[in-house]
């Protein structure tokens, strides 16, 4: 990412500026907006979003430290494979831990698009930990944020620097409103109305940028929850950040049947798989300012390597190494099929 020291600068450079310069016949220049109507519409929409957002600073420094230690215990338990199969969901720079209720989303869906999400069968994810009730939910009930007995779904999102979650609306057919989230470990921001583009990654200007402080509670309802997408941008996760999302599922929310799930992985195998996936994801304070490799780029690389391997099926690895050793000292080993196309991993 030569020439950029901060991902925010790169994203800003990729976003077309909304000001243009008009040069008059007398040589005088002045800036003007492409459309004042567009600005007015954005301002009106931002006001609608704000009408559906409530924030409060409820958790003290000491309470945050205690809750963050509990989140670390959840992460450690997940690394050991001690949770049920669908409790832990892993993605680059972001892990999800479903408690109480879990649901399919994104690439897990057989049919893509809003309204296709489904709850897992009951018992497929672990119950909400007691500490979440005692340290988080009960405090919110005491402060009148939510009524007692409201929450039956708790999700912990654990972000590493540079992590993100793309623009989305929490499934209306799955969850009742409001949507309550509590932030820990560091300050961040929630953005509304952004559009994501990939290869390279680009995020449009938000309709509303909402700062989210450590220990603060954010409540979404109305327009902010139902009529506009929200997201967390890569440039807004500068340090590790975790958020606990508390929701209530609808009584009539569609649910998968047990027979529709793939056979469970043996617990010992799952522990190995989960631990291996986590092992490469170390905290890197500079990751937020460094281009990331998308999974689609990695897939292209894997396909290229797989294709190259098939072309060399006739040669054993032992013979290949022997040929390399028999070459003159100082010469570099080159594959016989030098014309094979190499896929360069695109960074953004």
Gap from first CA to last CA: 8 Å
Uncertain residue ranges: 15-25, 264-285, 287-297, 314-348
Q: Describe the sheet with the most strands.
A: 7 strands, antiparallel
Lateral arrangement of strands in the main beta sheet: 3-13-8-15-6-5-4
Provide the structure class. Answer: alpha+beta
Please report the total strand number as a whole number.
15
Estimate percent helicity: 25-40%
Mean pLDDT: 78
Query: How much strand?
Result: 15-25%
The H-and-E topology, N to C, reads as HEEHEHEEHEEEEEEEEHEEHHH
- Form type: globular
Secondary structure tally, helices: 8
- Specify Rg, calculated over alpha carbons: 24 Å
Summarize it.
This protein has helices spanning 7-14, 36-51, 61-79, 130-142, 222-226, 267-279, 295-311, 317-326, and strands at residues 19-23, 29-33, 53-57, 88-91, 94-99, 153-159, 165-168, 179-184, 188-192, 196-197, 202-203, 208-212, 216-220, 230-232, 241-247. By secondary structure, it is of the alpha+beta class.
